[in-house]
Amino acid sequence: MGIIFVNKLLFLRTKFPVLTLAASHLAVSALFTRAAMYAGVFKPRDAKMDRMIFAVAALQTLAISLGQASLKLNSMGFFQLTKQLQVPLVASIEFFYLGRRLSVKKVGLLVIMTLGVCMACASDVQFSWLGALMAATGTACTSVEAVLYSHLQQSLGWETLQLLYKTMPLATAGMAVVAMYNDFGVSAPSGGVGGGGDLYGAGSGNFLTGMDALGMTLFLSSCALGMAVNVSSCFVNGKASALAYAMLGLAKTITVILVGIAFFDGVPTTRVAAGTLTAICAILMYTKFTLDDKAKAAALKSSGLDVREETLEVMKAPLMEGGATKR
């Protein structure tokens, strides 16, 4: 929640562009993993830069870039709606790619919580076909990225900082290229090639002249919080599951809505209240069913019976730690 406040204040105080800020977050995350490695917090994993590591970094860059392009071409309401599709997308990817199954009741709860959040944030829905394509592609990139982050840690034995040590420099380089083109490029008035703030930036780097001491403090605070978000997100993916991470995204959207109502210019309506309450109830019920499944699995295991994953499906609930099942 802290990064929401800081970024909001930063954008109100300065004209700092989103893409440059995103690249800065990734760069600080890369520097943090380097510092942690030199401090002996973890040992780097001796592995060649395989295609999966590169794919994760590329997907992260694409997801951020396409998300900001979607914000430029579509309304905020449509942008929020497409973000919620990450939950069904992650569940589908895990089913087809990893063979992970969910019970019917859990699938129903996932649908209900997604629809609840969509109801809460569905306002002023406007889009173009190009913008819709970019939004859908960006959400798909985020979903695949989350599944790969989870798979690399749970199935291939990567630690969180080991993985970020490999992916963050690549993601930073990719994001820096996009940000440099968009935020510092020279815009051609006759439609020629050039950036000039096309996606959501200030263009030509003019935002630097408006940075005062408070703006710089907000920027540095945003970078520190962004690094914490990157590390914690990867950690949740590894300790829980990609689906749990996607469900946390729903909780984040609800938090943003409530923060907007409480501290900014958000307007509380019956639709927002109904959608928020529906989503929260579905998340709580999903968590309860998961706890019940874990208790049954523990009881069967203690009785000496062979518990197979196909017999009793156990998925990780949001905000819970534990190793994921391997196939």
UniProtKB/TrEMBL annotation:
What InterPro entries does this protein's entry cite? Sugar_P_trans_dom, TPT_transporter
Topology with respect to the bilayer? Multi-pass membrane protein
Cellular component GO terms, alphabetical: membrane
Q: Does the keyword Cell wall biogenesis/degradation apply?
A: no
Q: Which residues form the Sugar phosphate transporter domain?
A: 5-286
Where, by residue number, does the polypeptide cross the bilayer?
A: 16-41, 107-125, 213-236, 243-264, 270-287
Superkingdom to which the source organism belongs = Eukaryota
- Record localization: Membrane
Q: Which UniProt keywords apply?
A: Membrane, Transmembrane, Transmembrane helix
Q: In its keyword annotation, does this UniProt entry include Amino-acid biosynthesis?
A: no
What is the name listed in the Swiss-Prot or TrEMBL entry for this protein?
Answer: Sugar phosphate transporter domain-containing protein
Report the source organism: Micromonas pusilla (Picoplanktonic green alga)
- What lineage is this protein's organism placed in? Eukaryota, Viridiplantae, Chlorophyta, Mamiellophyceae, Mamiellales
